[in-house]
Amino acid sequence: MENTFLDEDMDKQVYESDAGGAAAQAVSRREIMPAFIGTVVFAIALYALMTTVQPMLMGNDFIYDFGAMMAGCMEGDPLYYVAWFFADLTEGSFIAALPASIGMIVMGFVAAALERRGSPWAGTGVAGNGKIFTVMFVTTCLSLILGQVLYDGLFASGWIPTFATVLTVQVFVIFYGPELKKVATSLVVGTIVTCPVCYALLYGIVSPLGLPLFIAVSVGVAIVVPVCSLLFRLMPWMTIPAPAEGANPTDQPKGRFFVGQVLGDIGQLTIWGSTWATVGMYVGGIISWVMNPLSPAYGSGNFPLLIMVQLVTGALAILIWYPKWKKTGMAFTFAGIVFASAIVSTYPPSWAIVIPTILIGAVVFAPLVEWVFKVFRFKGAYHPICLIQLAIFTVCTAWSFIVMYGVMPLLG
């Protein structure tokens, strides 16, 4: 997520409703319709193939399952601590598997190199952060290691949100810059504060209510980022550099933009926002799934559904909000993927839950996030991830209660 911010007039630019504007929007959507259809067909076909094959793979145990990793960490096994470290890197995308993380890391560096070279095949690059990507990655790794050192005793309770520093420490590096003093401050403060806040929310509120565990992280990030930003104001070296200017991503072949942005939006779940890193993550995730279907996606067995939901939600969101992408170069379409992933990772894989979840994720979040920015009169004094998470956890909480007390009783 690049260090760029909303223009005050964006709403006026985006939501024009005159007849000429409507006609232009209809034409612009036709530009990406073939890519949209291809993406959705691919996602559904992949889901059908994987669900057909999965029963044949259930006996595979060539890699530990998520439950074994969790139990190993609770018992203090150092090898499982290493596995947990790698899983944390892709837990933001709800995959949480070592092979997926390795694939994401390798392709993330490839994407950063392509971005720095200005390659037309860079996809979304690493969301404009190619020059500081190595610093982002190293700092993230150090935050995960430090988090385990500080909070490994919390494993006695079960799952702990150590991965949350991927969302906070990384955005601090992006927002404040890669200078050593700033990075060290972001690393220490972000790591010390993030995990206990999320942990308290998880076991104090979210888990007892039966809500998706990610809501604890989402609320925690919404609290930690502005609080740490206020603290950083007391530190004279924590200055905010001028925002970077970026080109409109739709100024390229429209099919290439669409597919690249769908994958890039999925990549925003781990902050990198990278087309190629997402490809690497999915390839690694599928390898993990073949080795043991209960390894990725928290051992739920729903990994095929997770991939399909992420791809279809992302594709539908970009189709709906493509006129906005074309006019302003940005729409918060990735937020719906976070929401949809959290829901399908928590509740039964019924189409009565999955289909409306995809629709809500695709339709609601792009305008909702901008409305939240407007309500809070956001001017760029802190990283916007906290306001994005505010929108996500609000809708996710409301829909979760509807699912639990409205939809699931009807399903029996």
From TrEMBL:
Entry keyword annotation includes Membrane: yes
Signal peptide residues on this chain, from the entry's feature table: none
Keyword Transmembrane recorded: yes
Annotated transmembrane regions: 32-50, 93-114, 126-146, 158-176, 183-205, 211-232, 269-291, 303-322, 329-347, 353-373, 385-408
Ranges in coiled-coil conformation: none
Keywords of this entry: Membrane, Transmembrane, Transmembrane helix
Protein's name according to its UniProt entry: Permease
Gene source species: Adlercreutzia faecimuris
